[in-house]
Amino acid sequence: MKPDVLIVGAGLAGLCCARKLHQQGVSFLILEASDGVGGRIRTDLIEGFRVDRGFQVFLTSYPEAKQVLDYESLELRPFLPGALVRHGGAFNQLTDPWRRPLAALGSLFSPIGSFVDKLQTARLRSHSLKGTSEERFRDPETTTIEALKNAGFSASMIDRFFRPFLGGIFLDPELQTSSRMFHFVFRMFSLGSACLPTEGMEAIPRQLAAGLPSDSVRFGAKVVRVQPGLVMLESGEELRAGAVVLAVDGTGAAQLLGDVMPSAGQSVTCLYFVARRSPVEQPVLVLNGEGRGPVNNLCVPTVVAPSYGPSDESLVSVTVLGIPRDEELLQTEVRKQLRDWFGLAADDWRHLRTYRIPYALPNQVPPALAVPERSVRRQSGLYVCGDHLDNASIQGAMVSGRRAAAAVWEDIS
Ligand SMILES: Cc1cc2nc3c(=O)[nH]c(=O)nc-3n(C[C@H](O)[C@H](O)[C@H](O)COP(=O)(O)OP(=O)(O)OC[C@H]3O[C@@H](n4cnc5c(N)ncnc54)[C@H](O)[C@@H]3O)c2cc1C
């Protein structure tokens, strides 16, 4: 039977679009090129470890996620607020800069600029918390690095903390990402916790898919052509519906729509190792505040959520920004840095898997977010959603899916 709507892509945007259409009694079929739901949020099971395809975290404060997800059954395991910053040959604990900025920064950034940095962090917090999340996306737009400098943060505060922290979130060590995203992220960290679901990040899209009828997704269905009310699969098969929603990533959407290709997205490499003993005892994010070496950040998912692996070993997740060309050199350099940080024990860590992700996030350099919610309506019968239309986050992808469903509903009802 012909569905009312064909959705291309079973990432968060496609799933949230489907969810909303389902609630409204609109029939749909999701066409997904790969073998599972989740898009950029997938978790592999390797040798008993839950290995997320690239390190990412879920923020409990995402307003859309609060509406859409059942947090309790995700059994979210929080990171400690703050970070462990590697600097000056030691690990320095930075406790909760989001909620207690005045208390958090003293030891690490003293004496250079510490007083000003504390005050600025408190000021930033109060600005980020004002009004609604939508209002933060209407703040004047500049780059994140400019916003930090304009706010008066010291170079050491920026280089030791903001660059590795925000660089790891935006996958952008130069911090050229829109300041609107920065204010939004600061707000989210101030209002909630960074977490991993007990069963891995993929539990999030899986939960969304579980709320849909069982035959909602057709896997291995790569779409090669779209037009209002029609899609063509790689196999040559044509499918028709009242409307088509394109819920693929930004470059995929531009290709299928014949648009000008957007500038390259942010890329990242994530290496996983197995250690006999965890290098950290707490569920904490470790940041490279030294400004040298390939590792931007690392964590031990099995300390955050023990269900990420067997009880007698630890899973270490190491994030390197970009995709270094020489694989062997990368391994050598990463291991050298890990040995420097954690001693000879790091030499015994077993390499489990490396993920190279060429398009992890859409580029968000200004004026990328000049219009915070770009139009999801292409023409009657053809709609688009995905994080590239809102912002590069779980929140952005979810909102765009809901907006696309609303546009379809508006047009057909
Ligand atoms: C390494 C990494 C770290 C991240 N860290 C965070 C984080 O900490 N916090 C956060 O909030 N966000 C993070 N993100 C971003 C977040 O994961 C994404 O914004 C979100 O998952 C995007 O969802 P989407 O539905 O828009 O796109 P996608 O997840 O890309 O979904 C698109 C789907 O369309 C399918 N598809 C593509 N082309 C076709 C075709 N021709 N035919 C059929 N199907 C097709 C794809 O297979 C995919 O399933 C991270 C992302 C990555 C990769």
Protein architecture, described:
By secondary structure, the protein is of the alpha+beta class. It has 3 domains: 140 residues, 3-Layer(bba) Sandwich (FAD/NAD(P)-binding domain), CATH 3.50.50; 138 residues, Protoporphyrinogen oxidase, mitochondrial, domain 2 (Polyamine Oxidase, Chain A, domain 2); 95 residues. Helices cover 34% and strands 24% of the residues. It contains 15 helices and 21 strands. The strands form 5 sheets. Strands 8-7-16-17-18-15-19 form a 7-stranded mixed β-sheet, sandwiched between helices. Strands 10-2-1-14-21-20 form a 6-stranded mixed β-sheet, covered by helices on one side. Strands 5-9-6 form a 3-stranded antiparallel β-sheet. Strand 3 and strand 4 form a beta hairpin. The longest helix is centred in the last third of the chain and has 19 residues.
